[in-house]
Each structure stands twice: as structure tokens, then as C-alpha cells.
Amino acid sequence: MRVAVIGAGTMGGGIAQVAAMAGHGVRLFDTDPARAGAARTAMRGSLEKLHGKGRLGDDLPDDVLDRVAPAGSIAAACDAADVVIETVVELIEVKQEVFRQIAEAAPAGALFGTNTSQLSITRIGSVLGDGADRLVGMHFFNPPVLMRLVELVAGLGTSEETIARAEAFARGLGKETVVCRKDSPGFMTSRVSAIVRLECLKMVEEGVGSPADIDKALRLGLNFPMGPLELGDFNGLDTYLHALEALEVAHGERFRPTVTLRNLVAAGRLGRKTGRGVYRYGPDGAKLDDGTPAG
Predict the structure, then answer these.
(1) Both 47 and 166 in a single domain?
(2) Which of the chain's termini has less CB crowding within 10 Å, N or C?
(3) What is the radius of gyration, based on Cα positions, of the chain?
């Protein structure tokens, strides 16, 4: 199967790797060539670790990497693609423009997936006209190589055939699926995740505990695989702020971003990608402290 991935950030690179590990040929496009190069470097490191643990089967890291080819444009990536997955920034206007270009270049039968974690599939698909029936939310989780779930989300126009194709594709990647039948902002998982992380930020502001202790409490006491505050740094606090602002519009006051979050983003402390967020990070991404006090 031929898969196009549009956007080579953390999620796009990870999804491209998962697809290549499943044997698919992948074309990866990003407007920033440096980001595409960084994605390939990250893939190599991940694949070498997986190979060392015996998790690549008969493949060597180079075998998987050889299935991922850079593309110079959206049109070049989507030409002859069976599946196109968009993973660009969580801004509705940007995603709509990307899908306008995808629709012009991709074959008429291609499956369209958007990796949004909370934006309306119906609104994104509104630029596709009659082609909105083949767009489905395909919400992978970070890191895509390790996380088992893909949350599928039906827009108002998404066809049952499209949902079935998306389920089959995701399961072919070795993933489990759930289907969110109502196109409600935040879907199933992001609404819960956002509200838990927001409550953790409020507890930091109230002085209930340090970020490190709050994260530790949820890891060890509630079996979270990663503390919500550390996960926010991992995914990017700017991404989280965008998500909260959209959820506040849709669901009201309970999703209003905290002052601390707005200040961290305004200061450019976006998490691991900038070396500082709720926590400080070294050049290797290792956490260096117990967290930034509120204020």
C-alpha cells in the first residue's frame, strides 16, 4: 500500500515509521526540509532500538528506512497514494488548506485521514465537497510507534465504507481502534486528557504539590504511563494551549486555560522541544528539575 504523510513533526514522523514498519511505502512531506531530515534521524534511532530488542522481525533498520521517501510537495507525496494522513499544526484553517491541496493531487479512491486530536472533522472536510465522505479522523497517540490505540472519528459526511477502511488500515499497523461516532470537539480521549492535565496545572498554581510530585502521584497511584504535566511538555505546551482554547469554545468554562500555561507559552517555554516548559530539559531531552513554580 502507498501511504502519504503530510507533516514531519513528532506525530508525522512516528506515523510514517509505523506505516513503513508494516511494509507500506511512505512518502513524507513537510514545508520545512530540516524538520523532515530530523524526522528521518529520529526514525533511525527508534528503529535501531527496536531492532536491538528484536521487534523488527526480519527487517533491519535500513530496510524500514528505505520504504520512507521524502517528497518535495504535497502533490508529489499524494500522487498515487492509497492513504493520505495529515499531521500538521492544530489550526483549522491550516488543515483545510492542506486538504484542498491533497484533494487536487490524490487519486479519487484514496482514504483521507486527519490526525487532529480535537478539531471538527466536519469542518476540516467542508473544503472537500462531495469528497468529505472519504475523510475520517485518525487520532494516533504519542509516540505512535509504541501507543496501541488509534481513535477514529466520523465527521457528518464520513461514510461507513471510509470508517471500515480506516479500521482495516489501522489494524494492519498493529493498532487497536475505537470509533467516535459523534464529531464532538475533543472526541473521547482528548477531552479527558485535557481536563486531567488542566487540573494538574491548577494544583501547581494552588501550591498543592510540585509538578514532579503531582506527576508521580498519577503515575504510581492512578497507573498513568507518564505524568500529565510531563506529557504536556512532551507534546508541546503550545499545542495544548490551542487544544484548550478550542475546547473552551465548544464546552465552556471548565476548559479555560490557566494563567501559568498562557505565561509559559508566551515566554517560549513550550516543553522538551525548546528545552524548558513545566520542567527543564537537557540537550538529550532528559528532565533536569522538579518543575517550574506557578506564578
Answers:
(1) yes
(2) C
(3) 19
| DSSP secondary structure letter of residue 15 | H
Coil/strand/helix, residue 226: coil
- Asked if residues 212 and 205 have their Cβ atoms less than 8 Å apart, the reply is no
User: pTM of the prediction?
Assistant: 0.85
Task: Provide the 3-class DSSP secondary structure of residue 242.
Answer: helix
Residue 281 lies inside a defined structural domain of this protein = no
Q: How far, CA to CA in Å, does 108 sit from each of 3, 79, 156?
A: 14, 11, 20
Backbone angles phi, psi at 32, to 5 degrees: -110, 105
Give pLDDT, residue 293. 60
Is the domain of 220 the same as that of 133? no
- Residue 279 located in a structural domain: no
Answer whether residue 29 is part of any domain: yes
| DSSP 8-state class, residue 206 | T
- List the chain residues with pLDDT less than 50: 295
Q: Which domain holds residue 249?
A: 189-274
